[in-house]
Amino acid sequence: MIRYRQSPLSLLQALSLLFISSAVILLVYQLVIFSRIRLTFLPGQVIAGVPTGGLTQQQAADRLVQAYGVPVELIYNDQVIQLRPSVVGFDLELEAMIAAADLQRINQPFWSAFWDYLWNRTEAPAEVPLRATISEARLRSFLTEEVAPRYDQPATPPQPIPGSTTFEPGSPGVVLDIDRAVLLVEDALRSPSRRIINLSFDRVNPSRPSLAN
To answer: What does the pLDDT look like over 115-172, one tens digit per residue?
Structure first.
């Protein structure tokens, strides 16, 4: 009976097929992972200062609402005041921001993006700026009608001391700077992280004693 010895070429071919099969399987595996990544926002995506890479549209919207729904903390002359954004008409334009971010994902060519992904050459997409509206009238009304009357401190004029010709010295007061406060609060409402501000105020000197005193 004649026995044939296995040719070295056959072994080489088997190893080649093994390596090719492994490469194909690995490529398909990476393609599946990349396809899943493409269903969400691109890695490094930032919307209105909030990281949203790898999130779905609904998850990104929820994160934006959570970040910008945190009350702004106003500190006025050592007093702390909590301001809910909805009180002053703060409203996020979620659909516009989500659409702008999703457009960057759609416009990226699939195969060239996949090639960059394989070589770890992904670049962070451009940040989507904040789009929101604030009612300045409601904000000014809140500061004028809620904050100032409650936390302003009027100046105390000098008072005569009974039985003498001398006066107790008066004390200065503080008055909220409304115009400056409007700008500070608007900036805080438009920031997802800087939600604590110190309100500006003016000091008011006490008036002179009246002629009757």
So the answer is: 666 566 666 688 999 999 999 999 999 999 999 999 988 877 656 666 566 656 656 7
Residues 98, 51: Cα–Cα separation, whole Å: 12
- Position with higher pLDDT, 55 vs 115: 55
DSSP result, 136-150 = HHHHHHHIIIIIHHH
Determine if residue 48 is left, alpha or beta; phi over 0 gives left, psi from -120 to 50 gives alpha, anything else beta: left
- Residue ranges with strand state E in 54-200: 72-76, 79-83, 91-92, 132-133, 159-160, 167-168, 173-176, 196-198
Q: Is 30 in contact with 113 (CB distance < 8 Å)?
A: no
Q: Give Cβ neighbours of residue 91 (< 8 Å, ≥ 6 apart).
A: 132, 133, 134
Q: Per the confidence metrics, is the pTM higher than 0.85? A: no
